[in-house]
# Entry
Amino acid sequence: MCLAIPALVTALHDGAMASVSVGGIAKQVSIALLDEVVVGDYVLLHVGYALHRVSEEEAQRTLAMMAEAGLLQAEVVEMTEPVETGTAP
Amino acid sequence: MKYVDEFRDRDLARTLATAIAAAADPARDYNFMEFCGGHTHAIFRYGVQDLVPANVRFVHGPGCPVCILPARRLDDAIELAERHGVILCSYGDMLRVPGTGRRSLLKAKADGADIRMVYSTLDALDIARANSGRDVVFLGIGFETTTPPSAVAIAQAQAEGIANFSVFCNHVLTPPAIRHILEAPEIDPTQAARLDGFLGPSHVSTVIGSRPYEFLAARYGKPVVIAGFEPLDVMQSVLMLIHQVNEGRVDVENQYTRVVTRDGNRKAQELVARIFELRPSFEWRGLGSVPESALAIRAEYAAFDAEKRFALSEKQSRETKSCECPAILRGVKKPKDCKLFGKACTPETPMGACMVSSEGACAAYWTYRRMETLAEMAAE
# Structure
């Protein structure tokens, strides 16, 4: 939960939302906490929110470190886990 | 050199290790608290302790939001799901943490409570939209990085009129916790004197910036270096702290300049200030009642405050007996000092939060240093 992961912004949507790619995995996230995000930016993604803009170099270096430490896979799994949004189970 | 093969940049790791060994004065000790559980894990994963001289020590701090949430607040969350019939949404880290009587959210879910694991407050809002006839409560926990997402969710719920959504707010603040460790002699009279400096958290500081630590250096005379969470960042930060100590300097330095600025993320700070206000005090596991260390939802947003919407009962909450989590969180004990470690308490059958959370100190010792720790325990 405490980890932030670098993501590449691939498309912008209404309501301060954006599509990002994290190690090839696509995800819809909020960019409400950042100003002037553009397609091609790298952002630090934390629990579904872009918290900070980072350079491509920093993004690649962090991704390499996370992959090496086995953290990338765990984070991507957590991110893509389906959520039970339906009514009572 | 032990473990150095694990580093992506071995040459740099070796250079830093050599520089630390050369800088550390063998005639004194260096006790540095890494506040953040993410740093604790980087230190263990890469065996950083073995790359520095024995008189440079890491004291593990309370920067694990799951670990510091006291049993009472978890019991309240379980009550929300069980007695008030809400859909309780929680980050996955929280689900297996034992509350009073070792009851966890996962057990409550198995018993029929509607508890759902979410990755984001965005998911919790989706659940609220899809279940307009039911109350949906997001269990808000975490330090300054997870607070802005809770603030956005409340602002969004208000803007959209999602009237069935609320947040059970347990968001806590890093600088007051550090201040408390330095100031409260009842924690341990020797602790403040024993600590020679702090490694400041990386991602928290992307939000709040480095400025909020400045009073710690100025007022308490302890150096702070904000450190990135890569092992090389940690090693470089340790070197910076050693230099400060040797030179008698007390500064807030920022090793993680490639991401952290002095001012942090102003937009996030402004939104947090709009939705939340300081609580006069908040109970932390291990630290006790810490003044102005946590946030509550402002009265203007009371409709989205689970504590205002639901009458939570008085309860006799208790931490797990014999569990040393509280002392470990204060940095005065290590996991090996807990007789439950690796015996009654493992990640499969956790007795305390420090073994559950991926940021907890016990989980770090278990994952990376189990055999050594158990051997030390047997020897004592």
